[in-house]
Description:
Elements: E1 5-10, H1 15-26, E2 30-37, E3 53-58, H2 64-70, E4 76-79, H3 92-113, E5 117-121, E6 136-139, H4 152-167, E7 179-184, E8 187-189, H5 194-205, E9 209-212, E10 222-224, H6 225-241, H7 243-246, E11 250-252, H8 262-273, E12 278-282, H9 285-302, H10 314-319, E13 324-326, H11 330-335, H12 343-367
Parallel strand pairs: 1-2, 1-4, 2-3, 4-5, 5-7, 6-13, 7-11, 8-10, 9-12
Helix pairs in contact: 1-6, 2-3, 3-4, 8-12
Amino acid sequence: MAKDLVYLVTGGSGFIGEHIVKFLHKEEYVKEVKIFNMNKGGFIEDLKGGSTTITFIKGNITDYNQVLEAVKNVHVVIHTAALVDYLDERPFEELEAINVGGTENVIKACLASDVPYLLYTSSISAVGPNKNLDPMVGVTEDTIYHGEHLLSYGKTKAWAERLALLANGQQMSNGNKITTCIIRPGSVYGEKGQQFLNQYHSVKYQNNRINYVQPDHAAQNYEYVGNVAWMHVVAARQMQLNPHVLGGQVYYSYDDTPVKLLKDLHREFFTELDPDIQIGSQIPYWKMWLIIMIYNSIRLILKPFWKLKPFITLPILKLLNVAFYCDTDKAFRHFGYKPYYSWVESKQRTCQWLKQASEDLRKAKKNS
C-alpha cells in the first residue's frame, strides 16, 4: 500500500474542503496536503505539527497556469472548489467560468502533470430537481431523471460532471491512464455552515418560531459535513487500491441523518439550544411568491444606489416545494464506506458549534 502521498484539495479552505483536509492530516499514508484556495482558512494554523505537512497555495481555479503549478508532484487531487449559488444570484457566466472552466483546468493540469487520481465533488443539483418540479424520491445512481435543471448552479455542476467522467481512462503525458470518480453531496450541515447559523438567528428574531414554506410531501436529503468529507477520503484511497471499481463512477453521499422537512431538521437542532423554540406557521406558496415579487421590485429600484441581497428567490421557493432525496448504499458496496459519525454525534457536534458561534457573535456585537 503506497505511503508518503501528496494530496491537493482545491477549495480546501471551504466548507467541505476544510473537513477533508482535517481528515487527511490524520492519515499516516499522507505526507503532505496542499490546499489550493483564494483565501487561507484560519484552521490551517491549528494543523501545524505531526507527520503530515499542510501547504497553502493561494490561487484562482480559473487560472490554468496557477492550477498547473499547484498539481506538480501530487498523487491525488480532490477537486471541491466551486461557486455555490442556490439563490441564482450570480451571473451564469461566472458560474460557468468557475464550475466548468475550473474543472477543465484541473483535468487538463492532471493529465499534463501525470496526476493519476482525480476525485470530483459534485452535487445532487447536478441531477435535479428540474423545472417541471418532478419529484426525485428514493433515487439511486442508476435512476434516470430528465428535464431542464431548475438551478443554474445545477446546470454547471452537471456539465462539470460530464467532463470528469469523460476524463476517466484518458492517457496522461507519461502514457499511463487517469482514474476519476464523482461524489454528489445533498444538503450539507455542520460546523461552519453559515446558512445554518443564519437560519437559527432568523428563528430567534421571529420570537422563537420556525415559520416554513415546505408542504408535507417535500422531504429532502441532509448529510453531516464530517461524513461527506470522510466519504471523500475513503473514496480517494480506494481509487488507488481499486481503480477498476471506482473509475468512472458516481456516488451520492449519505449518512444516518433522517430524511426530513427542513423545518423539522431545524427543530431537531435549534431546540437543543433553546427549548422554547417551536414550529410556527406555514406560509402559503402564493403569499411567499408575492413577497418575492415585491422584494425583487424594490431591489430593482434600489439597484443603482444599494445592492440588496435576496433572502429567497423563485427557484428556491420552487425547490422547497419538491421532494428530492436519494436511497442508496452504492458507496458501501463499492468501497466499504460507512459514516464516520452517527446521527447523534453529528447533531451533537453541530449544536456545540452553533452554540459557540452564536455566543461569539453576541460578544462581538456587544463589544462593537
